[in-house]
Amino acid sequence: xxxxxxxxxxxxxxxRAAHALxxxxxxxxxxxxxxxxxxxxxxxxxxxxxxxxRNGDSYTRMMTAAMNGECVTQYDGGIERRAADxxxxxxxxxxxxxxxxxxxIARLERTWERMTPLAWRGxxxxxxxxxxxxxxxxxxxWREVTVHHTDLDLGYSVAQWPVDYVERELAIGLRGLAERLxxxxxxxxxxxxxxxxxxxxxxxxxxxxxxxxxxxC
Length: 217
Description:
This protein has 10 helices and 2 strands; from the N terminus they run H-H-H-H-H-H-E-E-H-H-H-H. The protein has helices at 4-25, 31-35, 45-67, 78-89, 94-114, 117-120, 137-151, 163-175, 177-180, 183-193, and strands at residues 123-125, 131-133. The two termini are 28 Å apart.
């Protein structure tokens, strides 16, 4: 199994590739597309892009603090400020939205280059108030950009998710599957896995966001 440093470097490479792909796909974004509905209920494409930008800045904030031996919250002003910033930024023209995303990506990638071994052992507090190791942040950023790129509903699909991302994310998801299933769902799933039942259908899962390690923020 890869050590923490190898896992981190893999996630950093994945995040950088996800950033590049997102920016390439945004190069032709129009104002009409920016105002259109995304795949997330109640959010336009502008909402999702503003969120991606502020999320990138939140990692820059926590990692910069870690380099100074400090621990700060992910968003200055907490979850309320996060929501207000997204609402305020969503109606902007496409060019402004794309420039914001690009700027936040550049700041974050510069911060990654400045991180020291000691800083990587630091942590911040995520939007749910939970301790968040800096070592884990590159993978969470990879998840944020990959999943929300799909949420933009502009052509990037699940079928395009990188194999290395899928393998790592699927292992995490499967580890938490049992606690998201009902008792009956666990029983039917286990019977299927043991060759003692049909492939289960109609399973009910608790919301994905309810699991702290799966937080999209």
